[in-house]
Structure formats: C-alpha cells, structure tokens
Fold this protein.
Amino acid sequence: MKVVPFKVPQTRKEAFRVQIDELPHFYDKLHQHHEVQLMWIEASEGVLIAGDYVGRFKPGDLYILGSGQPHVFRNDSIESTNQRTEARSLSIYFDESYLGNHFWQLEEMEAIKNLITKAARGFNIHGETRERAKEIISRMVREADTARIIYFLVLLELLSNSSELTPLSVTAPQESYNQNEGKRMNDILQFTFEQSHRKIYIEEVAQIANLSTEAFCRYFKTRTGKTYTHFLNEVRVSNACKMLIGKEVNIQEVCYNSGFSNLSNFNRTFKKIAGKSPSKYIS
C-alpha cells in the first residue's frame, strides 16, 4: 500500500480542475496532494479520515481538503463485505499556480487567500452555504471558458464569507509523508478498519508498523495528534453510528459488534466522541 503523495493530472492549462468520479468505491489509500480539493459526495457513505479527523461521510456532504492534508474516504462496503457499491463524487482541485501567483496576491483576493490558508485543516461545509455552493458548482460544470472561471470565483467568495464551515482537523499538516511513511500509515489504517470489531492490543499494531510498542505510541501521537486508542475508539464509534442509523441491531449489540467490551464504556466513549448518548443519537 503506497504511495501517499498523489499527483492530480492536468491535461492543459486551466484555472482549476473538475473531476467527476463514478467508481465501485473511492480511492481507499491515505493520500495527499498539493492542490486544495473541494469534494461533493453524491453517492456512497463511510468513514473519512482527514489529518487527525475521523468521522462519517454520506451523500450530499461537501468538504474542503487542504493542501498537503492526508485523507482517505473509505466506503462502508469495503470495510464490511466483498460487495461493491457505487461511489460518485465531484471534485474541484486548485492551487496558486493554476491562475498564477500574481493573481492570488491581488488585494481583492485577500479573503479568498485567507480561506485557502485556513483550509489546511480541512472544512465540512454545511447549512445554506452547502446548498448554495452545490447550485454554483452545478452551473459551473455546465459552463466553459470565462463563464466557468466566473462561477469558480463566485464559489470561492461564497465560502470565504461563510460562517458555516466547520474545521475537520484540529491541527494543520506539518509535513508530507514519504513513500515509506505512507505505506506504514496505510498499513496501520487498513489493520484498524479490518480488526476494530475485536479487542486490539497495542503490541499488534506496533508489529504492523514495524516499531517497538513505545516507538509506535510516540510515532502515532506525533503523526496524528492523538493516541492510537483514541483513534481506534473514533473508528468504532463511527461504525456504531452506521449500525444505529441503520437500526440493524439494538444498542447492546451495537456495543459489542463495534468492538467495545462493556456497555458502560461504550456509552461513555460514544457520548464523548459523538456529543450525545447512543439512545439520543437515534431518537
């Protein structure tokens, strides 16, 4: 599982790149790229990891992923079954080189420039801003040449003036992963997603990372800003949310199926991460 650095293809000179993906599943490796990415989820749901953020994504969600921010959208179907469900998204990629560095330095672009700087942590766009942004994007992709650029700038202006952008990651990315680091982190994530339903010992994950237990704990905390145990609990709570929403099983069954060993710990951890108890989450 490699390589974390990901190059966004450019076939011609362009102010930004629009990419429409219709795939069995989203690209399931932790990766990063220089461009800022605006991603509209049209179909599929699962778990999003963006920097130190872990949470669920679903159809209709709209995200900004910052330059160099490691991220991965993992579909539920990949984690739980061998079946493949359709995943659709529309992404807009851009950076300062696309319109030229001088353009982004214009005084009129200051608010948008600030948005791009803050986007290093990533954003979840919600509320009226999200719906308005989708309308602009839908018009933009149907246009060409100058009209498309105008809609692009209108979109950036909307986002730069909105208070309906919630940061994803607590911290901004400090450095890029090299190939070896990318493989190590992908192996850790793959193992965690596949085994989160059972008790996991730190020694197991350290072995996956080819590190001593102490070195692994330091490595993971440095890379993500959180302990592995906290990250594992976030993954388990995310999986529990899916089961609760689907009402496939009762709360006690969700507790054990998602990897928690007792109900009181599940309720306490769920409320800490999700902001409400499991019973209130489904009410």
